[in-house]
Amino acid sequence: MDIGISDQQRQQIAEGLSKVLADTYVLYSKTHGFHWNVTGPMFNTLHLMFMDQYTELWNALDEVAERIRALGHPAPFGRRLQELASLQDASSLKPAALEMVQELVDGHEAVARTARQVFAVVDEANDQPSADLLTQRMQIHEKTAWMLRSLLDQ
Questions:
Q1: Sign of the four-CA dihedral 74, 122, 11, 85
Q2: Domain ranges across the chain
Q3: 2, 11, 21, 42: which could join 64 in a potential S-S bond, CB 3.0 to 4.6 Å?
């Protein structure tokens, strides 16, 4: 494979993107579970917001996995995603609504940090497609964290 990025750099980028994929998958699963289980006075708002968020995350999973494949490496799945993720599963099956919001804020901030860590390797390799993907992911996660954080202001 000769796309102008060395084998070693492609390996490093694929490993970093695999961590982004893993964190995104855990966050997707948590968001979808919260969508199912949210209750209380903010039910409708959060139920719909969480649906928009898990849908966006689901679509992002494919983009990240396909970039890993385009770099010539297998995209991790199953148990391997849990091993690579820096995020933990939900604290419980049914936390209070605002606890759900806080967990999702923390999750989006964590994925943004993971993406930012990979960016240095991508930038050094002159890998513009991966840089573009990471920039978009950071922007989405930072904006989503801000919007969720706004629900916690009192």
A1: negative
A2: 7-152
A3: 21
Split at pLDDT 50, 70, 90, the class of 130 is very high
Asked if 114 and 23 touch (Cβ cutoff 8 Å), the reply is: yes
Query: Residue 2 — very low, low, confident or very high, per pLDDT cuts 50/70/90?
Result: confident
Instruction: Give the whole-angstrom CA distance, residue 100 versus residue 126.
Output: 38
Radius of gyration of the chain (CA): 16
What is the enclosing helix (H) or strand (E) of 79? Answer: helix 79-84
pLDDT at 154: 52
* DSSP summary character for residue 71: T
Using CA atoms, how far apart are residues 97 and 68, in angstroms rounded to an integer?
35
Per-residue pLDDT at 103 exceeds 90: yes
Give the separation between CA 18 and CA 12, rounded to whole angstroms: 10
